[in-house]
Amino acid sequence: MSQQGYVATPPYSQAQAGMGGYAAGFGNPPPQSHYGAYGSPTQGYSAPPPGVLKPPASSPSGMPPPPVSSQYGTNIQQNGAHPHSFPPPVSSSPSMSPYGQPPPTAFRSMAQAPPPTQQLTNQMSAMNIAGYGQRPVQSPSNSAPAHFQTSPPPPVMGHPPLSPPGQQPSPLGSPPPMATMGSMPAPPMGMSGPPGPVVHQPPHGPQGYPQQPGSPIAGPYGAQMAGPQGQGPQTGAFPGGFAGGPAQMAGPPQKKLDPDSIPSTTQMMRMTRLKRRQVYVTNTRGQVPPLVTSKFTVQDQGNASPRFMRCTTYSFPCTADLAKQCKVPLAAIIKPFAAVPKNETPLYVVNHGETGPIRCNRCKAYMCPYMQFIDGGRRFQCSFCSCVNEVPVHYFQHLDHMGRRMDLYERPELSLGSYEFAATLDYCKNNKPPNPPAYIFMIDVSYNNIKSGLVRLICEELKTLLDRLPKEEGAESSSIKVGFVTYNKILHFYNVKSALAQPQMMVVSDTAEMFVPLLDGFLVNFQESRAVINNLLDQIPDMFADTNESETVFAPVIQAGLEALKAAECSGKLFIFHSSIPTAEAPGKLKNRDDKKLVGTEKEKTLFQPQRGVYEQLTKDCVAQGCCVDLFLFPNQYVDIATMGDVPSHTGGSIYKYSNFQVEVNGQQFLSDLSRDVEKSIGFDAIMRVRTGTGFRATDFFGAVYMNNTTDVEMAAVDCDKAVTVEFKHDDTLSEESGAVMQCALLYTTIGGQRRLRIHNLSLNCSSQLSELYKSCETDALINFFAKSAYRAMLNQPMKTVREILVNQTAHMLACYRKNCASPSAVSQLILPDAMKVFPVYMNSLLKTPALVSSTELSTDDRAFHRFMVNAMGVEETQVLLYPRLIPLHTMDVSSESLPAAVRCSEERLNESGMFLLENGLSMFLWLGQACSPDLIQNLFNVPSFGHLPAEGTSLPVLDNAHSRKLHSIISRISQQRAASMKLLIVKQKDRAEMSIRQLLVEDKGLHGGASYMDFLCFVHREIRQLLT
In what way does this protein cross or attach to the membrane (predicted)? Predict the structure, then answer.
């Protein structure tokens, strides 16, 4: 049936002047360079006959559009400059391209012309967003001109609204709910007809915006942008905000543009929370799971929990042609070790004894709920390859009248989506059971780490932390062995055998040929050697207290840990605490190659490419041994994270970074990270394979993994935070009847030294209707895929090309929806699929992340670090990173147990009488407005008012009152949900530190370049119109 959703009008169609930061780069297709899901010629968008899905021109799936021939008509350039030209904007400074480079002439500038002010403002005033269907705009006589009329909220995702009377069903079956922007239901503001050509062109102001008389900064749509709450100038307006005040221009009185009128992530989360059932049962094929931001309990009834597997869409297109046409990447984000809440059942372990797990003889898929038992239960047909297999005698069971086995609910592998098998010796190296893993702590004792107090801090913490080593369920103590190394430009190994009265040190100064000088006594059980280990940890800080050695080695340290694990014939993890770039003469010596002159050029990618050679070989050797590397960095200057992080990022390890470390400032954050890193659930020496049904296959893998061939994902270790993103491609037609099935099998060693297989199964729908695909898309999973594929691409392509590909792909996905699934409507409308209506805000935020912003103000190490972090993230982590939570605290209900509802992530939401908590999973800020209530300040900080707070170094005390308890409870709850510890930074309004939170307010223009959400939406709409023309 035909539906209308979000409605707004054509600022989306006009060339916007000075549109935040994408001034000159996104229009044109990139040169013929491809990555990830993208890389082939685009198809023309010629209109299909009613009721028919037009097959596209053939090309590999999901690619960036290269130059296109005359499909778009002779006088229209694909995604390039408009055939007609506009006068260039008059500006005091030269036009700049996307993040500060001079604009290349080949690309269309977003700052071509001033907006036809009268027309834009009138059209924006007719926006009727958040209501489905078209309703007339109220006349000025009965509505307040400065305030925006909104209709009732839209239906929740997946529940389409009823068609308004008289609307005809869409020719393409039932399209998914959609959001439209741009309908012009009635002449706005008392005009007698649709807005005509522009009557009045005001002179240009800065950046090509029309200059308003009497105000320095005008809003981008001609009318003055409202300040917070749209009430004129705010005394404590956030730096960079638009000044308030009435717009003075010719023509009838104007309505102000309400930012609430565009799709909101926070509103979508709120609506989902209200409508969603608390329990999510996984017994339906292709059902879209709850959002990652909602609270739910999973009941496994045949498909893996969304905590383990999420997909970009839960309805795959039946043919490769459809997939190419829609450009929506088909991918799954798999977190095989995801933490399971206490109120959900942990995974069952199935033990078939010496015979091992039942598998298909042909494709080797493991027994799962999708296998069909036939011939009275004596044989089963594989749901992945259709091969018919004999059922082993010991596994035989009769079938009931429905053809199901009588023991269906007694066997986890027949009734659940996720479970484990105990592996036999056939699954072990050299057919021998593995030894329990080892943890080796390797501490850099060079001058910087001693002087900062870090070495003493680590040693003190390890005394208590080693009591909390992870252990098998039911075991009294941990089986993990521990060892200790200290180093600067030489290495010191310690014998901590329980029989010794004092630990013994052995020094290896020949770092070129690394070996472990002792076998017996290096890796020990902590409980048995506790006294000797504590003795050692007391001695280390004093032993090196007078050191002047500032040079360090790095590759030989990893080599030493690897050799120790080889000698002990076990897998394990190295915890390396390192401070500076390794400049000592040794293998893996690095030089400073940080060159800001490369930023914004073709060679910028070389800054993120690791220095090869010794590190490449180390990665290979570590993965083969099951040696995972966790790197804790404490740099005061450039350390080449792109190279130093390469081994951790390919061995399933984590990287932590504390710049300019000070014990009193960063100590608590570091200790929280270390403690969680040591205690978290983890599997070692892992190998993962994703099997699929016929018709499609896994083709690409992104994550903290190592690929030796095209199918096996190898991980020296895999923990509860690491996710692998897998892309699928068609190799045949899929059937709507049988759907698409996938199985992720992970073979690993437990912390107790057992070999296990962890199985996750998922079944999806298949459809020949694109509307079904769009209806079951998951925005959070899509953006995870795009982030990881873009972060891989930036190693091989210019940053500008990567950004263009992302924008082109966004426009293509939405244009295909508009063309094939939406009800016929004016081209000036922006129509978004309901399930993807907030996708543009995430995509715009991704384009402004440190890694993708070509800015010399950002350090290369920070950008490389960010790239490594995102590469290993799951859907929940990328969601909050790209749309941080902004929580108002001044209105919190201290008696309620729930978290206050988040508001839109924009500086317009900050008001000077408020207090807000802002977090993105990596950083946490508490923002205090200048006019914040003195009572609240007293309750939280124990000082009488805002003015009494110190300028810097404010901390949050624990006080005995309801407000203080509530705030600490909110911070604690948020911290528990996040993978990394977040240091709380308290920021006062108008302080210098306020700049640090600007980059997190993702709906606004980026601090280092990048458009606001509103401007980006306008730009994407113009791209879509280009494609549809």
Answer: Peripheral membrane protein
